[in-house]
Write a structure and sequence with these properties.
Blueprint lengths: L1 E7 L4 H12 L4 E7 L4 E6 L3 H10 L3 E3 L1
Antiparallel strand pairs: 1-3, 1-4, 2-3
Length: 65
């Protein structure tokens, strides 16, 4: 299953990496690909949108489905 979230606040490669690492640390996630220019992250895995949003927000960014 693939999910895409809108993410605000990513301004550099480090920001993309921080978002990806926060999501990839969750059980059920196979991978994440953040794109600061598109202001979104694509996630592959079987996990709830709520948990994904919480992980991104815990990393210091705003997210919504």
């Amino acid at each position: 299953m693939s999910t895409t979230l809108a993410v605000e606040g990513m301004s550099c490669g480090h920001c993309e990496q921080a978002v990806e690492e926060a999501i990839e640390a969750l059980a059920g996630v196979q991978g994440a690909d953040a794109d600061r220019d598109a202001e979104q992250v694509s996630v592959d895995g079987d996990i709830s949108v709520e948990r994904l949003i919480a992980a991104v927000e815990d990393a210091g960014y705003d997210a919504e489905a």
